[in-house]
Design goal:
Layout: E1 10-14, H1 17-31, E2 39-43, H2 46-51, H3 55-67, E3 69-72, H4 80-86, H5 95-103, E4 106-111, E5 128-132, E6 142-146, E7 150-157, E8 163-172, E9 176-180, H6 185-202, E10 205-210, H7 218-241, E11 245-249, H8 250-258, E12 264-268, H9 270-284, E13 290-295, E14 301-305, H10 311-318, H11 328-345, H12 348-366, E15 369-370, H13 372-375, E16 384-385, H14 388-403
Parallel strand pairs: 1-2, 1-3, 3-14, 5-12, 10-11, 10-12, 15-16
Antiparallel strand pairs: 4-5, 4-13, 6-9, 7-8, 13-14
Length: 404
């Protein structure tokens, strides 16, 4: 068949270890035979970030802003062990954090649900999408290990040098620890706009929870700014679409999510989103079945898998051993990018290819051909465990049938 054309490229961000190996398999087996693939390629592997002093990550972020769409392989965020292993001159920052900051984006994570893998939360009929505000809070906190008795204070001085506030955090009588967090109104407003825009695009309600009864300034600011954005910018569109926005305390929202049918966008502050995205993934089936898309307020999209580089399998692969690594979330990153590129550029053939790729992947799993992580979760069928290459080849057969 004639290959599907892509006049406008997408930014392709390659990565590390086993996910990099799967990246090549997916492109060669599932994409290039059917699509005249057009990408701007950026190597975000750890060795190349070292070679470029991490300039390549900034270049990739600018490419996403320019092209509007990117697809990213999982990458290593180095710790001291990785610094020694790769001979790094410094501990380079997380590429995801760098790109999120450049795009001022919000991360939306949703599980891939299967007929043959029932979620732990049996009432979930549709995915629960976690919208994580990936800025500030604990992740940019300032901390101090208190050595002994003394006073910890929170002081704010304006840019002219005038002290506007001084509060006692705690009078320590002995050793302890103290922490200060921050966030910005501008970032919270962008987060709210991203959540409501994304929810409208997928036709889902937005639920947001914080702890404003306890945090009467910090969490209350989140609550008030979310309500402001909804009332002033999105209420009419939500009502026209038959959608709703709900705010409640975070513990109440968590309880309601567990009793819901799913199909909602659950907006979470940074730490809450970090925890709840893994909880939703595990409750839905398996972390390798968790999709992730970074959305900016001005309409840029970066698709990736929510999991890491699968280091343990990579070491087995280097020894020549076959691995049964689940590539589903990475496949859905590519399909999501194709569907969005086709939507923006009015290319129905490219949208159809993305949909067919997802349908072929789901069909393969629902017929019982699975990687080992899912075999123990399958119900109503005797699964056949295959390695990664065999799984991708099985998808290829079904994809060809759907595109014929």
């Amino acid at each position: 068949m004639e290959k599907i054309k892509m006049p406008v490229p997408i930014a392709e961000l390659d990565g590390d270890e086993m996910t990099h190996v799967l990246w090549g398999m997916i492109k060669d087996t599932l994409i290039k035979p059917f699509v005249d693939l057009n990408t701007e390629y950026y190597d975000l592997s750890l060795p190349h970030r070292e070679e470029t002093a991490d300039a390549v990550t900034a270049q990739a972020a600018e490419a996403i802003k320019r092209l509007k769409i990117g697809v990213k392989c999982a990458t290593i965020t180095p710790n001291l062990q990785r610094q020694d292993e790769y001979g790094l001159t410094q501990l380079w920052k997380s590429p995801n954090a760098t790109i999120r900051a450049a795009l001022d984006g919000t991360v939306f994570r949703a599980p891939i649900l299967l007929k043959r893998v029932k979620p732990v939360v049996t009432c979930w009929e549709k995915p629960v999408t976690i919208a994580r505000h990936a800025y500030g809070d604990l992740y940019k906190a300032v901390e101090y290990r208190v050595p002994g008795a003394g006073k910890a204070e929170l002081v704010f001085t304006d840019e002219s040098g005038r002290e506007l506030s001084r509060q006692t955090v705690f009078d320590f009588k002995g050793p302890g620890v103290v922490q200060a967090m921050h966030n910005r109104d501008a970032s919270i407003l962008s987060f709210a706009r991203c959540c409501f825009t994304y929810a409208l695009s997928v036709g889902q309600d937005v639920w947001f929870g914080a702890k404003d009864t306890i945090s009467k300034d910090y969490d209350q600011t989140f609550k008030l700014l979310f309500q402001q954005v909804y009332d002033e910018e999105f209420k009419a569109a939500f009502e026209q679409a038959g959608l709703h926005y709900r705010y409640a305390l975070i513990d109440d929202i968590a309880a309601k999510v567990l009793r819901s049918k799913g199909g909602i966008v659950w907006a979470c502050k940074n730490y809450d989103g970090d925890v709840m995205s893994d909880l939703v993934a595990a409750a839905s089936g398996s972390l390798p079945m968790m999709t992730s898309v970074l959305v900016s307020p001005d309409g840029c999209f970066e698709y990736e898998a929510a999991h890491g580089t699968v280091t343990r399998h990579y070491y087995k692969y280097l020894k020549g051993e076959k691995t049964s690594t689940n590539p589903m979330a990475t496949i859905f990153a590519w399909s999501g990018a194709f569907k969005k590129r086709g939507e923006l550029d009015n290319l129905p053939e490219l949208v159809h290819f993305g949909e067919a790729l997802e349908a072929a992947s789901l069909q393969t799993l629902n017929e019982g051909i699975m990687t080992k992580d899912l075999c123990g979760l399958a119900e109503g069928i005797t699964p056949t465990a295959v390695d990664s290459e065999g799984f991708i080849k099985a998808i290829r057969e079904r994809l060809e049938a759907k595109l014929a």
